UniProtKB/TrEMBL annotation:
Pfam families: NTP_transferase (PF00483). GO terms for molecular function: nucleotidyltransferase activity. Gene3D superfamilies: Spore Coat Polysaccharide Biosynthesis Protein SpsA, Chain A. The keyword Nucleotidyltransferase applies. SUPFAM superfamilies: Nucleotide-diphospho-sugar transferases. Keywords: Nucleotidyltransferase, Transferase. It comes from the Bacteria. Residues 8-210 form the Nucleotidyl transferase domain. This is Nucleotidyl transferase domain-containing protein.
Length: 236
């Protein structure tokens, strides 16, 4: 399985709040932010290598590379020289490092989720999977599901149900993801709209690919300073 953690975002809301370090290195209970994403999928880390996609200037000017290797000694680190047009384009930049006949797991670097038996869930599924939690916040993407938790549709930053995505996405076949993602990538060049993973899934759903939703026990997002503060109060 290819496990990918994109860490190449701008972190705009943290910069506006006065933070000077890269968002992924912000301290959350004594750990860099991206540690918590890995904690949520730790059951997979003893078997699969993780590919981190980072900005070159973060790797060269901070301890990001060291901290990644401290947590994942066999990690693959892909360096980008500039910002991309969103998470999908970021993942495409690491295509050369993927085993294309294996599944693909993509997870945000700013989210901590708790989901029991995650390895069993992935091993037993022949469908794509989107991990979800209950929310009403329109800053997330949302899925609409049938009575069997099969996903009918997915929309970015539009509340179409009570199930928001955690940012953990599973694709049974890496090659299929890459093919569909690349077919639409040119549409986002030169415009401000980001190319989200949810947009690839929406396209795949329209083509008949099946995805199921998996509700996690807990989900904490670190999209802004106040969310970190709330997490610290709950977790301590």
């Amino acid at each position: 399985m290819n496990i990918v953690i994109p860490l190449a975002g701008k972190g705009t809301r943290f910069k506006q709040a006065g933070y000077t370090e890269p968002k992924v290195l912000i301290d959350v209970l004594g750990k860099p932010m991206f540690y918590w994403a890995l904690e949520g999928i730790k059951d997979l880390l003893d078997e699969y290598r993780v590919t981190f996609i980072c900005l070159d200037h973060h790797l060269n000017s901070t301890e990001l590379k060291k901290k990644i290797y401290d947590i994942c000694p066999d990690a693959i680190i892909v360096s980008l020289h500039e910002y991309t047009h969103g998470q999908t384009e970021t993942v495409l930049k690491a295509e050369a490092f993927f085993k294309k006949d294996e599944p693909l797991l993509i997870f945000n670097g700013d989210t901590y989720q708790q989901c029991s038996n995650i390895r069993t869930k992935l091993d037993n599924s022949i469908k794509g999977m989107v991990f979800v939690f209950e929310s009403k916040d329109d800053s997330f993407s949302y899925v609409d599901v049938d009575n069997n938790n099969n996903i009918l549709t997915i929309k970015e930053k539009k509340v179409i149900s009570k199930y928001a995505t955690t940012g953990l996405y599973y694709f049974p076949n890496t090659e299929q993801f890459l093919t569909i993602a690349k077919e639409n990538s040119d549409l986002f060049k030169g415009i401000k709209q980001e190319y989200y993973i949810s947009m690839v899934i929406e396209k795949m759903l329209n083509l008949g690919t099946q995805f199921e939703s998996v509700k996690v026990e807990k989900c904490y997002t670190f999209g802004n300073p106040s969310e970190i503060e709330k997490f610290i109060k709950k977790y301590e």
